[in-house]
Amino acid sequence: MEVKEEKTRFDGVRVEVLGPTYEPGKPAGQDEGNWRRKLRDREEMLRYLRTSERYWYSSDWYGSERRKNPA
Amino acid sequence: MADHLDRSACPATVQLLGKAQQDGVSTAFLRADHVKPCPIGAEGSCCRNCAMGPCRVLLPRGKSDLEVEVTGVCGATTDTISARNFLRMIAAGAAAHSDHGRAVAETLIAAAKGEAPGYTIKDEYKLLKLALDFGIEVGDRPIEEIALDVGKAALAQFSQQEGELAFIKKAPLKRQEIWRKLGIVPRGIDREIVEALHRTHMGVDQDAETLLLHGMRAALADGWGGSMIGTELQDVLFGTPQPILGQVNLGVLKPDHVNVIVHGHEPLLSEMIVVAAEDPEMLALARAKGAEGINVAGICCTANEILMRHGVPIAGNFLQQELAIVTGVVDAMVVDVQCIMQSLPKVAQCYHTRIITTSNRAHIPGATHIEFHEHDAVNAAKAIVRAAIEAFPHRTGRVEVPPHRVDFVAGFSHETIDYLLGGVFRASYRPLNDNIINGRIRGVAGVVGCNNPRVKHDSVHVEMVKELIKNDVLVLQTGCSAIACAKAGLLTPEAAARYAGGGLAEVCEAVGLPPVIHMGACVDNSRILMAATAMVKEGGLGDDISDLPAAGAAPEWMSEKAIAIGQYFVASGVFTVFGVTWPTTGSEKFTRMLFEGLEEKVKARWAYEPDPIKAARLMIEHIDAKRKALGIDKARERVLYDMAMRRGLEAL
To answer: CB contact, 8 Å: B381 with chain A?
Structure first.
């Protein structure tokens, strides 16, 4: 059964967290968390670079730095 | 017998300090009682840069250098002397990190040429990323060819004489403009360190302000140069860290195993020790000597490096290096560079432990030197492990391994945080920025640095971090500070519900992150720079690092590297608080430059506050001020509008 606990945020807002229902466990398997294996070849790596790290490697992403000429 | 409870917040440390006392072993904790800090040196008022001195430029009691002028024989004023000493600390710290980076670059080149058996290119993704940074062609070229070019380009950054370091362009554009305007963009890593030493030589730069400007340039050559090269190239050689379960504290030592401790900073050697310890030949030899197996554990930043990539347990942080030997079960302590106490061979004399130095840059009288070169790394590592095995049967005295061992999660590189927040198709810092904007996360703090026996071991780190996460501040950690908080159980996902405020706990639960994030070794502070830059570039939190609701701290700092790190954080736009002591208090004029004047120049400043709670409050106040400046000081929930609500909007 899901039991929720109320906690207070720094601005006074009350929120619910699942803390009490946390079940300790340990990751299993050698590849646990090894997300890099999802990138199978160089092309995928470069594509992932341009999207995930668009802040530096995409030609059409400016975020907070929108300007006429990309860096 | 003293109970030592006032010396450390770490129970294993307290227990072994008792054993050290019984065994008649001197430790840094005890020596700190007997060796009082020099009051003149402590405030930066001693100049020994020429033989007309050393000059002690002490001001009359109750007076500051704003009111009276005291000079050395050459006429150097207190602020000049203070600034020179500060710049020399930065230069030494930057040199240490950068030499580390250089060694990694040389190893990458050797590995790419096939001249470093045992080393391979483990992370092609990271290599491609660096190729883009250095403008190296990728195409269908073999990985070794790209690695060779990347290694050479990285190595060239050290000797570069003109222009700008390559990684400078990774900083937010606005920050780059600030650096260029001030003329503090590093030209080459070695050049800035050499110039720092030249400027501080007798009779060269006598202006505290220009000395400080160059201090920032040298520090940036560390953070956005040497350190970043070290971090990035290590990722190429050994793999970019991903979340991994680890264990920490002296309880990770195993009495029935051969225990090898790797201590220092460069993972080039420790990576090979890990391989050698798993070698069937070595394991057979260990069993023949009566051991159950070979247990490798780490101390200091080497520990962080091999934990993140192999899950090798951490025995402890800086002030636990002597105490690891006091357990009586450490058969060999293998050291390379930085933060290694000269006392180790003397402590080891009381037991059977072999202290093995491995770097041609770091020898210790009384230790065995087994020179380590990347060209013959495997054999050197085997020789070291063999020495540990040979020592195993010679254990003497009482063995005492504290039962303290804590689980924690480590290995959050900037790339992994990006992935965790969005997955393969939507990797992004957006969720982090959104949760800062909507108020669930109040801000971000980098809490890093050393241990110092002048304060209660681990206590200052842990108290500060607990105060920060209680107030919904997400904490990023590296180095001995991360180890301290891991021992206190703060680096697990469940710590969010136990210690964090409601908003931060909510986010940690949703993402599966601990409220305190382990980002690696001290050299990996560059990862924090990258994470901060990604937050800026993602948008919504201003357009410079100085706009972020973020702060930094090194509450138990000890080394010159910490000053270099602190200065590159300040120069990058991060408000940074140090504890323990402050090395420029002899000059109020120069201290004001650091604590106030820098705000005008780089939009960030230093602060000093030894009390961890007060320091945390300073950081939170700064974070709140930045939230206010961004207009996000009042929580505003995002509302999903239906059509009726949209029509209502249009009617306005």
So the answer is: no
Cα B50 off chain centre by: 33
Query: What residues contact B36, with CB distance under 8 A and at least 6 apart?
Result: none
B242 touches chain A (CB under 8 A): yes
Query: Is residue A46 less than 8 Å (CB to CB) from chain B?
Result: yes
Which one, of B313, B531, B556, lies nearest residue B448 by Cα?
A: B556
Q: Which of residues 90-129 of B touch A (CB under 8 A)?
A: 123-125, 128-129
DSSP-assigned states of every residue in B316-346: E-GGGHHHHHHTS-EEEEEE-SSS--TTHHH
Give contacts of B 418-477 with A, CB under 8 A: 418-419, 422, 424-425, 427-429, 439-440, 442, 471-472
**Interval B363-381: pLDDT, tens:** 999 999 999 988 999 999 9
**Per-position b or e across B191-223, b if 16+ CB within 10 A of its CB:** bbbebbeebbeeeebbebeebbbbbbbbbbbbb
| Three-class secondary structure of residue B147 per DSSP | helix
- A38 has a chain B CB within 8 A of its CB: yes
Q: Which candidate, B401, B406, B347, B488, places its Cα nearest to that of B16?
A: B401
**How do beta strands A5-8 and A14-17 pair?**
antiparallel
**Is the Cβ pair A48, B125 closer than 8 Å?**
yes
**Predicted TM-score (pTM) of this structure:** 0.94
pLDDT, tens digit, 9 for 90 and up, residues B424-472: 888 999 999 999 999 999 999 999 999 999 999 999 999 999 999 999 9
Whether B338 and B264 have beta carbons less than 8 Å apart is answered as: yes
> Of B588, B608, B582, B584, which Cα lies nearest the Cα of B44?
B584
**For A13-61, what is each residue's pLDDT tens digit?**
888 888 777 777 776 766 666 788 888 899 999 999 999 999 999 887 7
The owner of tokens 């201590």 is B263
pLDDT value of residue B144: 97
- Answer whether residue B178 shows pLDDT above 90: yes
CB contact under 8 A, B128 and A46: yes
Residues B21 and B30: their CA atoms lie apart, in Å, by 9
pLDDT bracket for residue B41 (50, 70, 90): very high
CB burial of residue B570 (10 Å; 0-12, 13-18, 19+): buried
B415 in reach of chain A (CB within 8 A): yes
